Amino acid sequence: MSIFLLVISFSSVLQVQAQGLKDAYSNYFKVGVAVNQRNVTDPQQQTLILREFNSITAENDMKPEPTEPREGEFNWSRADRIADFCRQNGIKLRGHCLVWHSQIGEWMFSDSEGNTVTKEVLLQRIRNHTKAIVSRYSDVVYCWDVVNEAITDDPRATNRYRQSKLYRIAGDDFIREAFRAAREANPKALLFYNDYNECDPVKSRRIYDMVREMKAAGVPIDGIGMQGHYNIYGPSEEQVDAALSLYKTIVNHIHVTELDVRINEEMGGQLQFSRQGEQVSDSIRQHLADQYARLFRQFRRHSDVIDCVTFWNLSDRDSWLGQANYPLPFDAQYQPKLAYTYIRDMAEPKWPMAVKPASRPRRQQAEQRTTPFDPARAFEQKEGIIEDFKPSSKNQPGRDYPQVNSQGYVRLRVEAPDAKSVSCSLGRGGTPLHRAYDGSWVGQTLRPEDEGFHYYHITVDGGTFNDPGAQNFFGGTRWESGIEVPSHDQDFFALKNVPHGRVQEVLFWSESTSQMRRAFVYTPPTYDASKKKFPVLYLQHGWGENETSWSQQGHAGLIIDNLLAEGCTLPFIIVMTYGMTNEVRFGGLREFTAMDFEKVLVDELIPYIDAHFRTKADKWNRAMAGLSMGGFETRLITLRRPEVFGYYALMSGGQYQPADIKDVRQVRLIFQSCGGKENPDAIRQSTQTLKDAGFNAVCYISEGTAHEFLTWRRSLRELAPLLFR
Ligand code: XIL
Question: What is the pLDDT of residues 654-702, one digit of tens each?
């Protein structure tokens, strides 16, 4: 019994895995592929073709020039090989193509003396070619792209036709003649007019007009081929829908004949190479999958008229666009990509993707504009994701987005009515946003974010912008958007009803840099009311940040207020100034000595602070700490100026070695910390080495966090109680 069940379930697993695209779409349309000679001769590629596809197009081998390089001289060997592959495997062949201005023998247009032929001669040559190839493959070819790309791309052109040699010699009669000859040679084959940029509003109207007029005049056109050379930004679902809806009013057959999706903004029939390079980010992969999902959603919606969708090439390796364009469902190793999964699995409506973009909000009626945004309609609800999303605590006043749930998933929403692409830097490699039903852009991170504070920004049509929903925080050398993913221990930096200290801005003259400089000074709650003097911690930010970072996103003051309220730390002053780190470029760290900053800090700022605040102005009441690059500075400066500081702390900012410090008695505390997702072992080991050498060394690891502010907030909480004891 149990073996029986096992066999059944195992075989059903196999069945599911054996399902190719053709099976997933068996209720909708054929799924085809354009092939080259290697594809139909390499056994592994043959297997892949047979598993996934049930229609084939010859990528080049049935075109006019390769099959008739000189008048009356036919070369069938390559076309035969593809036709035989189809015959042997019972697959149907799409014929591509009979008449095209490109890949056509130049002999067509000139006589033996090199003069341009007459219209009659050209039409006769077209008839001859068409008859020869159509009758040769009439047993296996079920449809033909009879005329390819005859309409102009120029939206301002008064004549709708491409000014090709074909047209200049024969006018649009070359189109009529080709269709008539093809029908005569094989009355059973469906005959298509095929073109690219066929979702463009101007061009689609021209294609429509031409086909309608020709059909009315008795030209045997059965269908329209939409080449489908698209990109991740377009066409939009609305445009695809509009084109299909238009074409289906005049033909009963539509084929998507040459589908591929580039990862740049190029589109259409011209061969252009991607400038993207080899690296494809997660965000681009996601964009590609999303665009394919949108396209196939429209194809399925119109499956009453679409009877075949053909990919232009088998894999990225075969693509005429080059593999850097990343355009197909199979990668350069013939492995299915995320796009493949989306296309195949969305054939059955497993998840609620079917949100059709409404018209642009700008154009909406006033009453529609007041309809509240409904997240249930806009965001994908996924199993395992808890629907308890709340606005981030770092949002701008009254802003609902970004939102975070209790697991750390982030939802974004941006209004950008005319944007073509929007993504967000959160999530590994970024998170793409897509248009929601109301025209806004929405997106959700694929994985939960770490708890704590993160910088991020939005990319709109390739440009960097802040999220209008979020407050800005200085990091990455700019005011970045910030988001707070609630942490389980967030109480220690929360704003509570306890006595609070004060953060004030001070402006001091710096002789060495000939300018006024700024620092923020935290004084504890008891500072104002007492006459006492206080010890001072000089606290440095990291690379890309500045003097605002520790008190704004670091919540340094709140952390100390809360510790004081619980009696866990002595009161002290904190001074935060700009560490002059942001001019250091990546790779230049080796030459970074922090000498300039040392002058500002030790010779200018410390005397200023000691003169303007009630400080205990000696080394045993002075500490220096820094995060990341600020830690690097702390190490350099404390070691060079042992007479100034008595307590040292490095937060994700390196380590001291016993050999660095000549006299064990020069320092009362060495504190070293980092996030559990950084290099905790190195920190633990070096702290142990320091202890073994007789130093008072303490190590702290912030569990579950990386090189980010929650690591450093926690580090400050751990450090404070150890200072000035
Ligand atoms: C392309 C082929 O893929 C390339 O190998 C060849 O060099 C040029 O033609 N529109 C069409 C196809 O109808 O025939 C084209 O195929 C791509 C654009």
Answer: 999 999 998 999 999 999 999 999 999 999 999 999 999 999 999 999 9
User: In which element (H, E) is residue 66 found?
Assistant: helix 64-67
Indicate if ligand 1 lies below 6 Å from the C-beta of 702.
no
Protein residue whose Cα sits closest to atom 3 of ligand 1: 320
CB of 227 within 6 A of ligand 1: the answer is: yes
pTM of the model: 0.56
Q: Which strands make up the sheet holding 410-414, listed edge to edge? A: 390-391, 403-404, 410-414, 441-444, 431-435, 422-424, 458-460, 463-465
149 labelled catalytic: yes
- Determine the residue of 57, 65, 320 to mutate for testing ligand 1's pocket, defined as the one with the most ligand atoms within 8 A of the Cβ atom: 320
Task: Identify the band that residue 348 occupies on the pLDDT scale cut at 50, 70 and 90.
Answer: low
Distance from residue 59's CA to the centre of ligand 1 (Å):
7
Among candidate residues 656, 634, 631, the one with its CA nearest the CA of residue 707: 631
| Backbone φ, ψ for residue 204 (5° rounding) | -65, -35
pLDDT at 265 over 80: no
Distance in angstroms (rounded) separating the CA atoms of residues 162 and 160 = 7
pLDDT tens per residue, range 204-214: 999 999 999 99
Contacts 24+ apart (CB under 8 A), 304-307: 304/248, 305/244, 305/247, 305/248, 305/251, 305/252, 305/253, 305/254, 306/28, 306/29, 306/244, 306/254, 306/255, 306/256, 307/29, 307/30, 307/253, 307/254, 307/255
CA 313 / ligand 1 centre spacing (Å): 10
User: Which distant-in-sequence residues (6+ apart) come within 8 Å of 628 by Cβ?
Assistant: 542, 543, 651, 652, 653, 707
Which of 338-352, 477-491, 653-667 has the lowest average pLDDT?
338-352
Q: Is the separation of the CB atoms in 559 and 566 below 8 Å?
A: no
**269 Cβ below 6 A of ligand 1:** yes
Task: Look at residue 161 and tell me whether its pLDDT is greater than 90.
Answer: yes
CA of 199 to the centre of ligand 1 (A): 19
| Contact 60 CB / ligand 1 (< 6 Å) | yes
Candidates 476, 479, 439, 441; CA nearest to 460 is: 441
Closest C-alpha to ligand 1, atom 16: 59
258 CB less than 6 Å from ligand 1?
Answer: yes
DSSP run (H or E) holding 452 = strand 452-456
Determine the distance separating the centroid of ligand 1 and the alpha carbon of 416, expressed in angstroms.
Answer: 36
- The active-site residue out of 628, 673, 702, 715 is 628
* CA 269 to ligand 1 center in whole angstroms: 8
CB of 320 closer than 6 A to ligand 1? yes
Contacts of 662 by beta carbon, 8 Å cutoff, 6+ apart: none
The finding on whether 68 has its CB within 6 A of some atom of ligand 1 is no
Given this model, what pLDDT does residue 430 score? 81
Listed in sequence order, the residues at least 6 apart from 473 whose beta carbon sits closer than 8 Å to its beta carbon are: 394, 453, 455, 479, 480, 481, 482, 548, 549, 552, 553
Q: Is 258 a catalytic residue?
A: yes
Q: Is the CB of 615 under 6 A from ligand 1?
A: no
| Closest ligand 1 atom to Cα of 148 | 13
Q: Are 442 and 379 in contact (CB under 8 A)?
A: yes
Q: What is the pLDDT of residue 432?
A: 87
Report whether 388 contacts 410 (CB < 8 A): no
pLDDT at 589: 78
In the chain, the amino acid numbered 480 is: E
- pLDDT of 362 over the 80 cut: no
Tell me the C-alpha distance between 52 and 209, whole Å.
36
Four-residue CA torsion sign, 142, 147, 152, 153: positive
C-beta of residue 420 within 8 angstroms of C-beta of residue 234: yes
Residue nearest to atom 17 of ligand 1 (CA): 269
Residue showing tokens 């207020």: 561
Beta pairing partners, 391: 403
